[in-house]
Amino acid sequence: MKLTSFLIRFLAKRQWERNKKNKFNALDHQNKIFKKIINNGVDSLFGKNNSINKSIKYIDFKKLIKLNDYESIRPYVKKISEGETNILTKGAPKYFAITSGTTSGTKYIPLTMEMLNFQMRAIKELLLLYSYQSGNCKLSNTGMMFIQGSPVLRKFNKIPFAKLSGITARHIPFFLKKNRYPSMKTNCISNWDEKIKKIVLETFDKDMGVIGGIPPWVITYFRALLAHTQASNIKEIFPNFELYIHGGTSFENYKNSIFKLCGDIDTLETYPASEGFFAYQDNLNEKHLLLLTNHGVFYEFVEVSRFKKGDNERVCLADVELGKNYVLIVSTVSGLWAYNTGDTIRFVSINPYKIVFCGRVSQYCSVFGEHVIEKEVQTALTQTLKKSGGEICEFSVCPKIKTNTKESHHEWFIEFVVKPKNMRNFEESLNREMETQNIYYKDLIKSNIISTLKVICVKRGGFDEYMKSIGKFGGQNKCPHLSNDRKIGDFLSEYYED
Fold first, then answer.
1. Confidence of residue 104 (pLDDT cuts 50, 70, 90)
2. Closest CA to 30 of 267, 332, 336
3. 300 pLDDT exceeds 80?
4. Closest by Cα among 23, 56, 113 to 337
5. Hey, is 109 helix, strand or coil?
6. What CATH number was assigned to the domain covering residues 1-362?
7. Which residues have C-beta within 8 Å of that of residue 361, sequence separation ≥ 6?
């Protein structure tokens, strides 16, 4: 056995034992993180403006610190960009991790080295936990390929910025760099079509064991690989490929397409964000995500039903309940304070704390009073694909408003890889699943207020063209799966309806 394999086996076992202990000490971890965040921020400009003191208790913290969004912290971010220190927390961030928003444009999220180390630690833990469970201790000797954002750094005044995935690409542990792909040169290519071609040329003859990335972009990479090599299956190209790491969107609706392209492999889901690394799948046999409570983030939660009514009452981890949808609120060692991530989650376990990602609170459809959320359309589509067959590449749902209200309905724009044999049956099954998922939707249908949903088949490449049209093609960008307006639907209807 090589020394590296022996070392990984030792580290993997130790991580497994540590994980077993840590996940049942979540509340202690959160108390320590809370105190750390307070100590780091008490002398900052934000801390002084909000009367934070070192002895503050959580009940007072909730009263003093209102719920923040990016617009709330924008003035502080501007000061940080100009080189001022001790603004949101002590010192200054190493980077800004950029993300986009529908109302604030590009958001510059402070990223300190401490938080970046937590991000990198989470990935290391995930790989070691996988090694322990799978018995594969040769990960460092096989290729790892992550389809991600460009690591090219630009500056917002004095602070460098990039996508989080691009920043982390600059801080890969030394023992993983040897077999890490794509190369820095290729990863810096901004044109996504060109980048995929270069990645294929750089990797088609390598021994890949681990591949990561958002499902639609990994599917694009796999197809380009097969076209280049004329192989019929990814395992013909990478016989030792055994682990796919995914995140950023629900995997279930892409699973059949991935498995068809590469055969039976292990998959692990992650939940990283510019604000912090929130959760990962710590158990191969259990698809729920373990909330990471000792990785620099203090969590709070607002019930989605309350949030939509303007009630921002927050609860900490100790007070969450199973089965409720919550908006995820975070305070971090990087200087975020009661920050609304815009994500929604649901707890499926409390001992340990495990969650499922439900979508974006801004992604909903309620033109007719149906209050449909992303998790419901994801689940309905997953169940329909299981029953009716078919494979999808991408999809998005939006309302269609008719003059005669009874003819109004939801339109499902779906780009199929393989169409179901009977589209009418597929459509009817999808509508039944939606009625199961959402009682308001069902009542609207049964009361003849709206009609049943319609499926619109999108030509191959249609969603890619939409993302190009808004300047968000490639990288970690994701097409919204649910909208309360017609922007995506109108584009696809005009140019790419099949």
1. low
2. 332
3. yes
4. 56
5. strand
6. 3.40.50.12780
7. 304, 307, 327, 342, 343, 344
- Give the position of tokens 């949030």: 307
The model scores a pTM over 0.85? no
* Tokens read off for 274: 């510019």
CATH topology of domain 364-495: GMP Synthetase; Chain A, domain 3 (3.30.300)
Query: Which pLDDT belongs to residue 217?
Result: 83
Among residues 387, 379, 369, 370, the alpha carbon closest in space to that of 346 is found at 379
Report the alpha-carbon distance of residue 482 to residue 253 in Å, rounded: 14
User: d(Cα 376, Cα 378) in Å, to the nearest integer?
Assistant: 5
Which ranges in 389-497 belong to alpha helices (H)?
423-437, 439-446, 462-469, 487-495
CB atoms within 10 A of CB 464: 20
Residue with tokens 């699973």: 255
Q: What residue type is assigned to position 47 of the chain?
A: G
Return the beta strands (E) in 217-318 as ranges: 243-247, 266-273, 276-280, 289-291, 297-303, 315-316
Residue extents of the structural domains in the chain: 1-362, 364-495
Structure tokens at 360: 């974006």
pLDDT at 3 over 80: no
> Is 70 exceeded by the pLDDT of residue 176?
no
Residue 17 has pLDDT above 60, yes or no: yes
Residue 327 β-bridge partners: 302, 344
